[in-house]
Design goal:
five-stranded antiparallel β-sheet; globular; 472 residues; alpha/beta; 22 strands; eleven-stranded mixed β-sheet
Length: 472
């Protein structure tokens, strides 16, 4: 009775109270889960416990929710909205795998059109099989298709399954049957295999909630900004872990930490240790702004991250939706060019860092937009603005070279490479998300476990085609 509840965190209210409210709601769900876990483990101690997560759903802290479960599982409906691209689905798989740092299940895999009042598109031939292998490639150990037969009544009567309303075998049935027979052949190779990542992206539910409370700019979305950095890594065929700012970072050669709005001593110490020992860290605008209680800090931005970044923020500008600026790259190793930026511009004062990108327009023309700072044995990059996609690709490609991370193969557009390893042996998945056939140049001789064919020099992938490769 003494606490004014905002009821919804987007309410115009005290931002610290709104964040505490969201933490309270999340913790309430955690407490309810624990109540059930205690009962189930007492009466059925030999059975595993999991339940359906929902990808990038951010109303519950999934890192905390995963702790009490034996493994994570989630519902994968790529055609449910128009927002899901192949790389975004991959990002969610990597996030689910990272929650407990172990393999996961897909508890509901899309097997037909989704539908409530409206009916979604039907997955074209090969698409369900491709989604299945994409999940496995990123660490799925179990796939359950939703559903067996489409319901004849009720709220989800148009949420289609493998069989349609008539219950008869169809094209989807034959495709899933083929996939099941293939998996019988390769299951022994996959069982016990794991994903080894050299790159991590830091994600925080608390920071996500803080940006929901105060988005800063109508064109800014925290999760979508994470995806901007993930896309070039996906295109390079690199495994990525999606971890918290408090996680052990020592195994990674490159860590990307977008928009560290909320910080605390543990996060600062963790990042400092990582960089001092030789890590490459990339962080961005709106970092070091607030403490963990969502209260603004007094220090000049980026606050307690200034020593790591070697910069101070003189001022900043939240850009109207119809305005932008440009950034000129002056570091030859990256590749000189001028790129569009929008949403937000930090105007940087360099202290110890080196300037590698400058704004070209407005009253802050010629001021730093992108910097790099050597700290200990490592390096810290600071990006003060929100760039267009082309720039993220160029920047990440350069950072991978600096961090000595070599992509395994050069991939055509729309072809995904993902790998799992077992007893020192790599299992490579090539996934063609294009409708058209693609040719992939390979660096050595491989056997395709699905066809038992040997490939040398190149592999031809059919539209929506899959190859599962082991080195000869």
């Amino acid at each position: 009775d003494e606490i004014p509840l905002p009821w919804h965190i987007e309410t115009y209210h005290n931002p610290s109270l709104c964040l505490d409210y969201q933490r309270f709601i999340s913790d309430s769900y955690l407490g309810y889960q624990q109540l059930q876990l205690d009962i189930l483990r007492k009466i059925s101690p030999r059975w595993f416990i999991t339940h359906n997560f929902m990808g990038l759903f951010n109303q519950i802290n999934y890192y905390d929710l995963a702790k009490g479960l034996d493994f994570v599982s989630w519902d994968n409906y790529p055609c449910y909205t128009n927002e899901f691209t192949s790389e975004k689905i991959a990002l969610v798989h990597d996030h689910m795998r990272s929650l407990k740092k172990k393999n996961f299940w897909v508890m509901e895999a899309q097997s037909g059109p989704t539908g409530g009042q409206l009916i979604g598109p039907t997955p074209p031939p090969g698409q369900i099989r491709l989604w299945t292998y994409q999940a496995i490639a990123h660490g799925a150990e179990g796939i359950l298709y939703f559903r067996w037969r489409t319901s004849l009544f009720g709220q989800e009567e148009y949420w289609h399954g493998i069989l349609d309303h008539d219950g008869l075998p169809n094209r989807k049935y034959e495709e899933i049957s083929k996939t099941g027979k293939e998996l019988l052949k390769i299951g022994s190779f996959l069982n016990g295999s794991e994903t080894d990542s050299q790159v991590a992206i830091l994600y925080s539910y608390d920071i996500d909630w803080a940006f929901q409370i105060q988005p800063h700019n109508e064109k800014f979305n925290y999760q979508e900004h994470l995806l901007k950095f993930y896309q070039p890594l996906w295109k390079a065929g690199l495994a990525v872990d999606i971890v918290t700012p408090e996680d052990d970072l020592s195994k990674y050669r490159l860590v990307i930490a977008p928009n560290l709005l909320l910080i605390n001593k543990g996060i600062i110490d963790n990042l400092t240790r990582y960089v001092e020992k030789g890590g490459y860290l990339l962080t961005t605008f709106r970092s070091g702004v607030k403490n963990w209680n969502n209260v603004i800090l007094e220090e000049t931005l980026p606050g307690k991250l200034s020593q790591l970044t070697g910069i101070k923020i003189k001022e900043y500008c939240s850009l109207p939706s119809d305005e932008g600026n440009k950034v000129k790259i002056i570091e030859e190793e990256i590749g000189k060019g001028v790129f569009n930026c929008r949403v937000w511009c930090d105007i940087i004062r360099v202290e110890k860092a080196k300037t590698i990108g400058l704004y070209t327009q407005d009253y802050y023309q010629g001021e730093p937009a992108l910097t790099i700072n050597k700290y200990g044995k490592g390096y810290v990059l600071y990006l003060g603005t929100f760039m267009d996609n082309q720039f993220y690709q160029i920047l990440i490609d350069w950072l991978l070279k600096k961090a000595k991370i070599a992509p395994l193969l050069k991939l055509p557009s729309g072809v995904e490479l993902s790998e799992r390893s077992k007893e020192g042996k790599k299992i490579l998945f090539l996934l063609n998300h294009n409708k058209e056939a693609q040719q992939v140049k390979i660096d050595r001789e491989y056997e395709d476990l699905l066809t038992k064919k040997t490939h040398k020099d190149f592999i031809n992938l059919k539209g929506k085609g899959v190859s599962c490769l082991v080195e000869k």
